[in-house]
């Protein structure tokens, strides 16, 4: 059973489905999207920063003397251990197309930390690279080890990769929004192999959701080690319930939408029995989970969430989608 017909390559670097108009949903395109690069890999290396300063009124965390007086510089197999030892130095949140990586420092000092971290990201459309630098305010002991809500924002920068210059390394010092500069290397590489994507390209980690048509799993893409949410849909189920056009429309709209509050579609492929949608994995948890944990939100937080939801709904309405 084949539901997605490879009629032609779309501008999103994937094969476009043929969606018949039988009186069902017909997605619209409200604006002409920016031309996007061919699929490929984006290499990003966050090297170091210099001249970082703390915001007024912020004090450095209390660092154990035995840690602050000894910051070994060896690399290789000791990287993960060294990063844990330098927990008190600024860390980086690196993001590209909703995919985030947290980078702990290898050494240096608070004003001049060193990361020397390289990451690969899958490219399926244009997106900026976001680099944000934070300083932890709690030690790695106690009940709030993983709570980063109180961490101090030190500065950030957005970088637009040069997708029209493949295989060229772009490296420079970028001015941070706070104080100081960060040294970053960026290189885009086209995918010339054009090998069809299959389920074998992913390591299945765990089930994170189930629905009437299938399930959603957390997966790791083997070549880049990036984490995604993989939605599997059984073809027999959507055919028996006459949901083919709606399913194809969902895939088409997700491929076109570029909104900060809507999870983007990265890849789509199929097997004889199943359809697969690979989406960005957003690890913040469901809104209802946070509401249950907090009991109630204050007015400022409620206003913030409501604004995000309204922006997402407005974007869907522009595509003639009514979310229920």
UniProtKB/TrEMBL annotation:
Positions of ATP binding: 235
UniProt cross-references to InterPro entries, sorted A to Z: C2_dom (IPR000008), C2_domain_sf (IPR035892), Kinase-like_dom_sf (IPR011009), Prot_kinase_dom (IPR000719), Protein_kinase_ATP_BS (IPR017441)
Enzyme type, top EC level: transferase
Catalytic activity: L-threonyl-[protein] + ATP = O-phospho-L-threonyl-[protein] + ADP + H(+); L-seryl-[protein] + ATP = O-phospho-L-seryl-[protein] + ADP + H(+)
EC number: 2.7.11.1
UniProt keyword annotations, A-Z: ATP-binding, Kinase, Nucleotide-binding, Phosphoprotein, Serine/threonine-protein kinase, Transferase
KW Iron (keyword) present: no
GO molecular function: ATP binding; protein serine/threonine kinase activity
Top-level taxonomic group: Eukaryota
Record domain Protein kinase: where: 202-324
Region listing for Disordered, in residue ranges: 1-36
Domain C2: 23-174
UniProt protein name: non-specific serine/threonine protein kinase
